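Residues determine shape. We examine one folded chain.
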Amino acid sequence: MNAPTDRTPGRPDADPAAGTGAEPTDRTDTEPTAQPEYPEYPDAGQPGRPPVVHLGTTSVVTAQDTFALRRSARAVADLLGADGQDAVRLATALSELGRGLLGSERLTAAFDLLPGPPASLRVTLVWRGGHRLPAEALEASARLLSTHHEHGGGDGLVQVEQRLGHGSNPDPAPELVGQARHLLDAHTDPSALEDSRAQTRDLIAALEHTRAQREELRRLNRELEETNRGVLALYSELSEELEETNRGVVALYAELDEKSQQLREASKAKSRFWANVSHELRTPVNAVVGLAELLRADTDVPPEERSRQLSLIADSGRTLLALVDELLDVAKAESGTLDPLWAPLDLRAVLTHLDGTLRGLARPGVALRIGPAPEVPGELLGDETMLVRILRNLLSNALKFTEHGSVELTAAIEEDRAGDAPDGGPLLVLTVTDTGVGIPADQHERVFEEFYQVKGAHQRGRRGTGLGLPYARRLTEILGGTLHLDSAPGRGTTLTVRLPARPAPPVGTRRGVLVAVDDDPVFRGLLRPLLHEIAEQVVEVHDGTAALAAVRDVRPDGIVLDLHLGDVDGYQVTADLRADPALRHIPVVILTSASLSAADRARLSHARAVLPKSGLSSGRIAAALAAPRPAAPRRAPSPEEGS
């Protein structure tokens, strides 16, 4: 919207209507000897700016002249490159000004082309006499275009200017200027009806343009709404991802705190280890050294005393040797290289041996009851050395913390209700019960940590490395069994060992079919001759999916499985075999070159053994296949349980 300007200029030196002739309808360009003077815009005539191009001047006397002025303005604007709406705007403004100035003296309209960029079409209306331009007409023109108005001394001037757009030529060709002048000269005066029709067409065109703009605006609004929905969805997605990332960061910090706590506990365990082991080693060593010094210094010792001192030296040496063996066995169990030696098991002899060696450890007032051995249908199979070490650790631990009452070891044969014993065979259940101080519930898992000892006054004067219960549990797991603890302060402790009782096939028996699973063809070539020594037929497959299909097809007598395969790895194959009742009895031996954590081994509880790929032999594979399957899968131990 452009507001009009109004100022009072001095009278021009020449008559603005000069050259129009005696009749008001004469054109000014028909009298070239006298051209009217027109005010120029402030930048006209400036250095470097192209001169104004005058297109022509028409007289406006009657209403038909007003119609002609409107049509001429639109035609010239269209010719010079104005937008259709801009041409209508210019024609409408001049129509309003022309009707408002009808009746004024010597009213003329001059068309000038102002070169750009951007170029503009300027129309100047000049009149004489005391006629004033109505305010309504001036306001209507100013609403449409930039309008400049001057009036003073009875004369008046009003100018409107319409820019021709960015596509107009800043230096119009002479042919275009000539065509514009021809339109101004040759345009016939229209009738009121024709002008009304032209205005109607302009109005319709304007309405169509407005409707198109409205539709375009609606389309843009729809696109904007769609964009807004997309932005909101993206924002929501990014917010969820950020929240998920934050949760991950929080979980990571929690895990780091947990790992830090584990490291601190490991450091404490290391300190306890050195303190306990150094004390346990130093005691028998001091006895050996002290007694040896006595024997060397006193050569006149009676034979009976000498024999007693030599017996003490031998006992201390055996204690020291047993402690060293225990430490070495713990290290082997930790690395997974402690394998059982399966043989027929005489349970009655085991219980008798324990009764004879441990009875002297009982305090006065504490009754030690061991056995009797149960009647077993068939032959038991196991590792006698490992079983003796398990029970000796449990019994000695119970005797150490029982000051009155009893310590009892019972043995029984139970049916396998969970279906975890090999071929559904029975279980050997060994239970150690005492009436000692008991263990708090929050310490039940911690007592299975290596070198950990429950704090309390009952620990004073009681020696030990803190390896007894962890060592017993590891040996039980190696034999394919479980060790369960039930205890409470003041109520005593019950430890239950469950082991498979059915004998496994003899190690030297050849098997019919073995399935070997490994994705490395070179290693399969190394493994092939070893398996052919213990099996009539070897079926080789290269991935976990093919392994499951081959096992279901041939129903082998054993599976030798690489742990790290493709998408279906050894963990998954083992889990699928265990979940299938028709396949769970097939013995599985895991081969790997990686070090496994306690959690990884817990996931492989169904396997008979986990063997390293280095140092394999046919005998070792056969022994692993002949081992009894674990009685029950244990959960992956928490970091606090040790590994």
